[in-house]
Automatic annotation (TrEMBL), chains A, B:
CDD domains: ETR (cd08290). This is Enoyl-[acyl-carrier-protein] reductase, mitochondrial. It comes from Setaria viridis. It catalyses: a 2,3-saturated acyl-[ACP] + NADP(+) = a (2E)-enoyl-[ACP] + NADPH + H(+). Pfam families: ADH_N, ADH_zinc_N. SUPFAM superfamilies: GroES-like (SSF50129), NAD(P)-binding Rossmann-fold domains (SSF51735).
């Protein structure tokens, strides 16, 4: 029979090892007892997740103990638990969640970062295990953020708004007066794209799916600054570009849907193959319809269309990610100025199961769920 | 009724105007009478093309009169005549053909280019109207080429070999030992890719279609230097990359087919999304199957695959095209050294109709047709 320690989930084992190894530093700081949402195997999140007690953990010299305030349930968190996301924390004993905001609770004796108890911090770049009431990690993990914005925004600023910002900056040089086109415009990334583009004087052509309430959705997006919003069925016509009116042909398009919605983005993109200008670029960052992107070969040859992909996780691993924190500060500044907003539902940790059900779509279309600890 | 001059094909009108305007330069040089393959309207090439006499034309001060030696019938020439190619000469009176080689016959009195009668020249960048026995154009059009290679190679060096060379150079930085993957490997561009890659120490993984004689085709490509050649049906398996053996994952792929053959290229491409290396790039330059390219969205997001297009015509219009002539000289040097070869059939101008039928596929699979004037 395995010795008792083998029966513990891996996270607890790690915590124990950490305590043991840190005895030698003679630090007397320990974190408060904590609660975490854990999973030991991949599967349906409402089947495999469980709330567990995590014993106190000693702080290393440069560790910071953070009391978590809020963390969202993102689709990529769900996919990690299901086991279908390419990057996942090791099992068993993985703590869910990848972003969130917390308050500095205690500092190891050798911490040099300008942090004080009470400061708001986020893990930046984002990292595994934010569904937990207290987290102890090295000071390098934590980025201090402003605390004069709603905590739900600080908790969600990385995964969606940063994706929108990077996609606007990393592929095509855009200037004020230019236009872009996107599908899935009602998603949070889509809403951020509209608002960030507007801040820079860039027009947005937006595509949404046909459904009851699509007129209301159009109104909401226009209030955020969308220049044009079309449902897919409105674009079932030959000369899409006649709909551009005075806007220039978009040099950049975003696709988070696939299938027909991706083809519509491609049809709007600029192509000017015989002159020095390059054809448009479509960036795929999601595949909500679960259908592939289908492109006639002539789009590549004669229209000079390029197709790329964006994955924030990869960007965070690149050498460009150094300015991740600068971007976060910029985005939270826009939130503070009222220039960046999106709908979320804040729900107490005690009702985690309900938040999870909503995030899994079991209660129809719902705003992003943010758990308050 | 229109005055008689209106009834002439446009080319003849242009020639007449040219003669008239050049009287003032007092140049006494005129070209010999010429024969050209013309079309006045778009349609099936064997219906709309006709051989016409072109009257002598006066040479301007900086014009060069070239006696054409040979010119190919390229698929893009066919498409121009059919009216389905995006860039076409004006009608009526368009002369067919876009590349070819000729011999300097006479020089205008103010020509400064180092050209002498008897020199071999090609229009570079390629330009409309090479199916003609004598051509008079400004000296800037003509590029002197070596005459110690078979004239069929000088006549065809631009459209296919230059496409292969640019695609190997313009998208991904390749180093000796790297690998690339391509479909349509038996096409002339495909054969050039194999040979040019070999010259630079780059391995090629080649995909051809299943057909009678595919084993013979494999042997031919291997003789040219192909490292691996697979038929599409051989690749109907899950783990394509196990076929790479010791070769590195290709960072670059070429697609001239579309459909399943394009998907196979994508499956071979490298993807290494979490590290600093970029995923592979597929360049589409043709669509022989007339089927689109279909890509799961995950290829873009998690595998970081990029998709681009190449069209030589656009490259020639770009500011990078300055070194076009240097590339031509390099390619004809390789021909001279025996390092670049491909199958062609040379056919006299008197049998143009037969050559056209063969180029149109009316006699089964045939080598590229090159007309000797």
């Amino acid at each position: 029979m395995a010795p008792p320690s083998r029966l513990l989930p891996a996270t607890l084992q790690i915590l124990r090892r950490r305590c043991a190894s840190r005895f030698s530093t003679a630090s007397s700081l320990v974190s408060p007892p904590s609660k975490a949402v854990l999973y030991d195997e991949h599967g349906a999140p409402d089947q495999v997740l469980r709330v567990a007690d995590v014993p106190p953990v000693h702080l290393g010299d440069r560790d910071v103990c953070v009391r978590m305030l809020a963390a969202p349930i993102n689709p990529s968190d769900i996919n990690r638990i299901e086991g279908v996301y390419p990057i996942r924390p090791p099992l068993p004993g993985a703590v869910g969640g990848c972003e969130g905001v917390g308050q500095v609770h205690a500092l190891g004796p050798a911490v040099t970062a300008p942090l004080s108890p009470g400061d708001w911090v986020i893990p930046s770049p984002s990292s595994f295990g934010t569904w937990q009431t207290y987290i102890v990690k090295n000071e390098s993990v934590w980025h201090k953020v402003r605390s004069d914005v709603p905590m739900e925004y600080a908790a969600t600023v990385t995964v969606n708004p940063l994706t929108a910002l990077r996609m606007l900056r990393d592929f095509v040089q855009l200037n004020p007066g230019d236009a872009i086109v996107q599908n899935g415009a009602t998603s949070i990334v889509g809403q951020c794209v509209i608002q960030l583009a507007k801040v820079h004087g860039i027009h947005t052509i937006n595509i949404i799916r046909d459904r009851p309430g699509s007129e209301e959705a159009k109104g909401k997006l226009k209030q955020l600054g969308a220049d044009e919003v079309f449902t897919e069925s409105q674009l079932d016509m030959k000369n899409l570009k006649s709909l551009l009116g005075a806007f220039p042909e978009p040099a950049l398009g975003f696709n988070c849907v696939g299938g027909n919605a991706a083809s519509l983005v491609l049809k709007f993109l600029s192509h000017n193959p015989l002159f020095f200008r390059q054809g448009g670029t479509m960036v795929t960052y999601g595949g909500m319809s679960k259908r592939p992107v289908t492109v006639p070969t002539s789009y590549f040859i004669f229209k000079d269309i390029s197709m790329r992909g964006f994955w924030l996780q990869k960007w965070m691993n690149s050498d460009k990610a150094e300015d991740c924190r600068t971007m976060i500060d910029y985005l939270l500044g826009l939130v503070h100025e009222g220039k960046l907003k999106y709908e979320m539902e804040s729900i107490p940790f005690s009702e985690f199961s309900l938040a999870l059900e909503k995030a899994l779509g079991k209660h129809g279309s719902q705003p992003k769920q943010v758990v308050r600890f």
